[in-house]
Design brief:
Elements lengths: L1 E7 L5 H13 L4 E6 L4 H7 L5 H10 L1 E4 L13 H8 L4 E7 L10 E7 L9 E3 L7 E3 L5 H17 L4 E6 L7 H13 L6 E6 H10 L6 E4 L1 H14 L9 E3 L4 E3 L18 H13 L3 H17 L13 H11 L1
GO molecular function: isocitrate dehydrogenase (NAD+) activity; magnesium ion binding; NAD binding
Protein name: Isocitrate/isopropylmalate dehydrogenase LeuB
Keywords: Oxidoreductase
Length: about 325
Amino acid sequence: MGYKITLIPGDGIGPEVVEAAVKVLRATDLKFDFEEVTAGQEAQEKKGTPLPEEVLDTIRKNKVALKGPITTPVGSGFRSVNVAIRQKLKLYANVRPTKSLPRIGRSNCDVVTVRENTEGLYSGVEHYCDEDKTAAETHCIITKKASERIAKFAFDYAKENNREKVTAIHKANIMKTTGSLFLNTAKEVSENYPEIEFEDRIVDNMAMQLVQKPERYDVLVTPNLFGDILSDLCAGLIGGLGVAPGGNIGDDLAVFEPIHGSAPKYAGQNKVNPTAEILTAVLMLKHLNEEETANKIYQAVKSAIKEGKKLTYDLGGDAGTQEFADYVIQKM
């Protein structure tokens, strides 16, 4: 069976890790037709916008995209292309699984963060409060509709993937309105899933709990900012951002991208770890219901890391990006 996939190489190390993931996908029995489009810094330079409308159009047409990391300027420049894609295409669920791999990180972590992707403190509603720019404020927007939608997604994900528990993450003890709205909505949704255990945790306590005993947690459902932070923490538990995949999913469309950034200082050096992008491709295959091929690649990645002969620098080896991808293909 063949698939038409939008391909967004991204900035910095993006093209290299995307090349590695595509190489692995092409080594399977499936057929892929990749429609490549440009977003980020190169698009900004050539077309005056980091997110040309054609990028969104091709995702709408193909329904699925595989994406590399895109640089987001700190403090100035264009707003996050990643956030813009999620909001414009209504990709409301950010799914970030972090599962222990052989030889690296903690051995007892298998946590999936389901993060609300469209509002919260990433809504983009912010401004300076005075002419001197000495005070600024950001609006945290939480709606019942979006909270209900992401909670339902988390419980459905747990049910479909034989997960036993969903934990809602919040700060309702301090954020009395927005935090309570998210938490209470999640509680209401949980009543429709009596077979799945439900609990809640305050976000700062959750951070400590994950470091001390990650094995007690299963699926986390979170507002936007909290999910961004906690999923990075979970990535640290399993070996770092170089092994942490992610996906953005809506009702009809999906864009898959790794958690890590574009790391421009390593661009073009063929040294960064492509595992996160390869495992992101695994998530994409699962979304396409190609479970057998997804599992074949995942097991090959596990085998390559377990053997430890051709690891990248972040995992203690000296193999290059493409060399590791080729080794994964050998293991397939």
